[in-house]
């Protein structure tokens, strides 16, 4: 799946025969104010899709519309190969597990007892309780009261509830929110195993790029209700710039331009060029040194994924203000 940065909400992904989720122009307005606007998601099956955006970007609202918890103002949703509507929801939603915001459970009951209640509602077999407890690594705490669980254990219990009934699609809204580093690691490692071990498609939202980039195969970035990017993480990687630290930056820049090199910028003692192939670097350095100019450093600088993410969201905010 190829990705592209865009500003008009359109999706730039390769066509596949089947999508776990696909939306067309999905929009939600409250009192005329758009919260989600013209969102086109395309999530391939059996992968982890990271849904990324700042707090208030529209992630939770989008997920609620996917689950029928919020009615779209306009647009379409296809889930597991079928159009999603009030009529079709009754046979599509049993194939979907979800954890939106925070898990709900009875604190005075054990983890196993909470799961058994959900199992009965879903009509799942009794053996499925032990299976999901093992999957989320809570077998040792099955007989412990839920109110005595740590925050990370409560999140895993919520995921276990979502896994009952062997869903094909799992939708998780900020599952690592509020956890300590150990709890975040546990949830992250669990999510990464689900497509491989259970053939699941997982959509997981977060406002932290550092979390998403460690677990997701592809990502979608949303801000102020609009999609800014959709595709592989590699599509956000910066090609970088070649930066030379020198004695005489202005003189070097003029000399290089005269010799046919493309100089993009001069900053203090640094000359910035596009990244040239390795075979051209010795000639570049020889040209400078031959002119009697000292070269202290030659390096390729790339913006981190976090910097690219921040740039995308800041640009979107500027466009919104300008509009």
Structural overview:
Helix 4 crosses helix 5 and helix 5 packs parallel to helix 6. The chain folds into 2 domains: 232 residues, 3-Layer(aba) Sandwich (Rossmann fold), CATH 3.40.50; 61 residues. About 4% of the residues have low confidence. The protein is α+β, with helices and mostly antiparallel strands and 323 residues long. The strands form 3 sheets. Strands 1-12-11-5-10-9-8 form a 7-stranded mixed sheet, with helices on both faces. The chain has 10 helices and 16 strands. The radius of gyration is 25 Å and the shape is elongated.
Main sheet overview: 7 strands, mixed
Number of strands: 16
Structural class estimated from helices and strands? alpha+beta
The side-by-side strand order for the widest beta sheet comes to 1-12-11-5-10-9-8
Level of helix content? 25-40%
- C-alpha Rg, in Å? 25 Å
CATH topology of the largest domain: Rossmann fold
CATH level-four homologous superfamily name of the largest domain: P-loop containing nucleotide triphosphate hydrolases
- Measure the end-to-end span: 32 Å
Strand content: 25-35%
